Amino acid sequence: MLPVNGYYIKQIAEKELPDSIMLGFGGQTALNCGVSLHDEGILDKYGIRVLGTRIKSIKVTEDRELFKNAMIKSNVPVLESAPAYDLRKALDVAAKIGYPVIIRVAYTLGGKGGGVAYNEYELQEIVQRGLSLSLVNQVLIERYIGSWKQIEYEMMRDNSGNSIAVCNMENVLGMRVHTGDNIVIAPSQTINNEEYHRLRSAAIRAIEYCGIIGECNIQFGLDPLSESYCAIEINARLSRSSALASKATGYPLAYMAAKMGLGYTLTELINSITKVTTACFEPSLDYVVLKMPRWDFRKFELVNRRIGTSMKSVGEVMAIGRTFEEVLQKAIRMTDTGKLGLIGNEENAKEELELIEQKLLYPSDEILFDVVNAMRLGVSISRISKLSSIDSWFLIKIKNILDLYDKLHEVDVSDISENLMRDVKKYGFSDLQIGKCLGLKEISARKLRQKLGINPVVKQVDTLAAEWPAKTNYLYLTYGGNKDDIAFKKQKNSVMVLGAGPYRIGSSVEFDWGTVNMVWGLKNNGIKSVSVINCNPETVSTDYDISDRLYFEELSLERILDIYEKEHPIGIVTCVGGQTANNLVPKLGQLKVRIIGTDSVHTDMAEDREKFSRLLDTLNIKQPPWNKFTNLDGAKTFSQNVGFPVLVRPSYVLSGAAMKVIWNEEQLEGYINQASQISPEHPIVISKFFQDSSEVEVDAVCNGNDVIIGALIEHIDNAGIHSGDAMMCIPPWRLNRQTMNTIVDYSNMIARKLEVKGPLNIQYLVKDDEVYVIEANIRASRTTPFVSKIVGINLISLAAKAIIKGNLPSRLNEPWLKVSGFGIKVPQFSFMQLDGSDIVLGVEMQSTGEVACHGNSFYDALSKGYEAAGYNLPLSGSALITIGGQKNKEKMLSLISLINSMNFKILATEHTAEFIKNNVTANVEEVYKISEPIRKPNISDLLYDKKIDFIINIPSTSTIEKYVGMLDDEYQIRRKAVEMGIPVLTTVESAISFIHCLEWRNKNKPSINPLPKYNIQ
Amino acid sequence: MRVKIPTIHSNHIGLNAMAILEDGTTYRGTGFGYPKTVGGEFVFNTGMIGYAETLTDPSYRGQILCMTYPLIGNYGVPSKSIMDNYGLPKYFESDRIQVSGLIVHELCNGASHRECDKTLDQWLYDERIPGICGIDTRDFTKKIRIKGVMKGALSVSENQINPKDLLDTIKKTKYDGFNFMSQVSVDETTQYGDPSLEPIVLIDTGTKFSIIRNILRLGYRVIRVPWNISFSKIISYKPKGIIISNGPGDPKMCSSTIETVLKLFNSPLPMLGICLGNQIIALAAGGDTYKLKFGHRGQNKGCTEVDTKQTFITSQNHGYGIKSNTLDKTGFRTWYINSDDNTIEGIKHESKPIIAVQFHPEASPGPYDCIHIFESFKDLVEQTESKKKSIHGGKVNGGGKIFQRMKQ
């Protein structure tokens, strides 16, 4: 587990002496890394051959100018454009092409740093940022074609020049929105045969000229008003789009690309679904597939929710069905954002026509619902299409859904005909949505539907539209058909496993790891048929060869019941699908669906705050004082009694309002008045917030009696940072023996009391050697894979054993203490992609990913963790220090001395500079705030000129100012730094670990060791 | 000036509809297009795009077509008045809809495209073709795959439909052993292209416009002749080469074309057979043909060139094929094979300039990856011409690779 960059790969090459390398499978990171290894001569030096697309070809696709020339030579049109290496040239180019122009940055990922400029002012802003982000200091200025269609092809090509187009896809929001943030449908819907094949032929010419071997994605812009088209870009690697295309078609692109890399030809390989026909074919779909992004803007204050040329979504879902209406509504629900479908959601306040039109012109994550609102206001399809650049065909379909909803709304429940109900289901309405429209509960709507004899059918994804029989069970459910493709027999020995749905903040690949390992674990423990339900195309659990049956479906009560009723399994495993699956447990329990693992009563006991609290009381285990409040007075009295700060969380969340640390009464009042609806139905929960305390987590497996604790994980940051955003460490590095014993004892007691069968995770708070329980999750957690990998014990394999067989290996004695060295997990943030978001961390999770590294010592592991998460570790240069509040300044005293002794030049703002001069050293340069641009030296200039290597910017109490009105200047510093790729430390603890890391790296070299295999599965 | 993209809603949809297979399997759905009852051979096509081109392909004569792709009609139907550079209707393969009926999962109730002139249901209505939607086309397709193609009937009506009437229609329906040539071939010779260009004779056994387009693209003029034209008449046009087109039904029904082709074998004229033309050449050479279980109809079929092992994605539409072991001693050998089931996808003569393919190099609908077949034909024409000249001029031709592949 090491950072993927040239430095580390070089060391591995020295050690392992590989003869070849594949660069196309690790996204842009791996591709960039490969190019730099080549350019530094490392590949040549160690005689390492690049398999698949060669470096020369990669460069053609990555360098805008080379790409443009290649396209012209392959007779594929490109947009008028020119590169610029500085601002002056950029302005000249834009003037020549004419505004609006789009700025693209060479060698970055996800369209990072690019943007559309409508004038010189905007151009200046984007170009400056872009130049700094580009690895080669290059931006491309190009004609902007926002109203064109965006069509993509996933292509494969082998060594002998056989080329196929595996999948074509259309972006519903056209060229205006980055494909990663677009709603994507496969196959394309609005183009005709001539257009489809003109682009396809162009794709083949282009990849032949570029010399692609393996897989690539090519994007085209297509003018809806003329015969013009142009190639936008080629990604010479497996991408998010290729994962989507693999799932959309059943054609395993990565597997085939690896084979091409090894020199196989397409003709030599077989279709892995039919097992008899050739792999040299183009999948034919007899269904449609829609990808919907999942955005998490709600987690960020101040963030700009507009979507456009740079990608902001954090995950995606894919729906399969037989009409556009069906997949659209399925996909909306799959994103798990609380929407019932396209319509029937909480009504927003009526908006002015002008505002709606504005929203169509500048789309946000709510674009589909803005389209619905516009239709409700009577805006015509052609006008909506003109404003939004969404093709009318999609709008006709959206209108179909609204019309049918209205029709259903007018009918009396007793008058609903079989035909109407069938039509409604064919358009993807859920039972819950139908129930809401008719004034029925979900289950009543379901019964009504079933009484009318309307049930979904199971169909196979088979790559050949039923022309050849499929040997695999890659399945979806639809109302667009009358017959199931597969036979259902009552199997004594089958289990359903719920996956985790879309990646989002707080739930990511760690739950996919859990799902896959659970499937394997169940198979190893004698389960004959394992079915997986999941809807996230980015996952391994949705590969059709992982489980016996894959249902690419909604993780909703309705769909799970549909499948359960067909499959008749012995039970459902809900403990590896994160909170999405866990939340379904009570409802499934009520309907007498058998959950295997911890039963629904005990899961609920952990989930329900009051029940859990009582359980802790009976065990004599402490927890931070808390209570539920339905009015302000009670909340105030409680807070005064326990003492501020307190942690407040609404049980019913209005947009933007979430958990908060509250520092005083005034703030509490403001919070309650503004952010949350407080009432007997929607109480708020207030608990004491302990400052200067640390957090510890436990991941364990229990079979109802025996408990195996995988590890105690200690957070490096103090409590108050969400556990998903905290850096953490195995084994604990500061805890004393007694505290560890207490935590182990508590964990055993809680696990047994909750009769846990499977994985569990408990979060503790340690304050002055006292241990408090924050919460227990009776499921696999975000840290389960981290623990499993560092400790060498696959906790999910053990969980499968605990669930099915009941017996666990005899007690393992504190395996986490036997780890040699340290394992450290570091969060990865995407603030750069989220315009306007602030990077100060708090009790709401904001990170979008994580990395973990192992090291021989704490700082060895931590420094690698930082690098893996993309931080630069400067060993000399300038440090900007700005600290709010006297208490924080004092805490940082010794650290500032250390920075000074490490030969960093110290820059500081007025008060901090004065403090440093008085207490540490006179060797400090005062710099001025961004809000005072006339006063020099100004932070803004220093940032742009890259004269600052890292920043310590600690707000006085991290949340208070954020709440009472952000200190705009500090925000500006953090924001600009993020945009310029400069590390920013915003808490005392993170600053301490960072500086010590630099100190360690000054004297030491990081270790390079492979992670050992699991010694216990 | 900003062009407006038309958006048109469907009108001719909503009547009762029923489709019945010869084995009695019944599908009830919603009717669209023209209300009437038709019989035909039920087939399916797995292409996801190009319904305007598909429905006008004369090879579908006598057949009721099921589209496996579930959403049909999205971009509407363009106007017939839109012509390509050669003066042929750009988006159509003949002057009318050729299928007897259409089966789809969902007919889109609205269409939108720059070139959209009418909706699909309107077009079917105008050309008096019935269609059925709202049925489980995947189930239908599986039935055909398992049991093989069979006859069936489709009815669209304002009234209740009696299955018995449909079964009667099936009894009256003829497909195997029926000669469709009079329905698809030209009655009289028709010429295309600049009269000063060298002529190629196209024997029309139900040709698609795109074959004509491609001959014109090569720089020749086209003399399109009826399927039953005589050998001497062909020779009287002094053609530089002969192309035998695609077409519907059992190739053995085209006996007079087969006879003509046999005579042409003895001339030095280069020849290209496409689809039905491929089968006709095989039969003329003494090979045999047979009916496939459910045919090959789609745009995603891999075909491998036997000599080079190169595979191309082809557009296909055929229900008959050449029996693989019947080419021995005919002078022909296998040129292309189907990568999925190894059936013959192309043949060429060992010494004579005669080539033929089972797939559709002219595409439309489908990929243009095999358009080079036309270039191969042109090479044969040019080599034959230069040989003639060199014989006259007493020079010896240096030879050269006959089957030079050219990619666009």
Explained architecture:
The complex is a heterodimer of chains A (1017) and B (408). Chain A has 1017 residues and is an alpha/beta fold. In chain A, strand 19 (571-573), helix 21 and strand 20 (595-596) form a beta-alpha-beta unit. In chain A, helix 22 crosses helix 23, helix 24 runs antiparallel to helix 25 and helix 29 crosses helix 36 (988-1003). Chain A starts with 5 loop residues before the first helix and ends in a 14-residue tail after the last helix. The model of chain A is unreliable at 652-657 and 958-966 (pLDDT under 50). Chain B has 2 domains: 12-172, 3-Layer(bba) Sandwich (Glucose Oxidase, domain 1), CATH 3.50.30.20; 181-393, Class I glutamine amidotransferase (GATase) domain (Rossmann fold). In chain B, 23% of the residues lie in helices and 32% in strands. Chain B is built from 10 helices and 23 strands. In chain B, the strands form 5 sheets. A 10-stranded mixed β-sheet of chain B has the order 14-16-15-17-18-23-22-21-19-20, with helices on both faces. Chain B has a 7-stranded mixed beta barrel with strand order 2-3-12-8-5-4-13. In chain B, strands 1-10 form a two-stranded antiparallel ribbon. In chain B, helix 8 (255-265) packs across helix 9 (276-284). The longest helix of chain B has 22 residues, at 372-393. The radius of gyration of chain B is 22 Å and the shape is globular. The model of chain B is unreliable at 394-408 (pLDDT under 50).
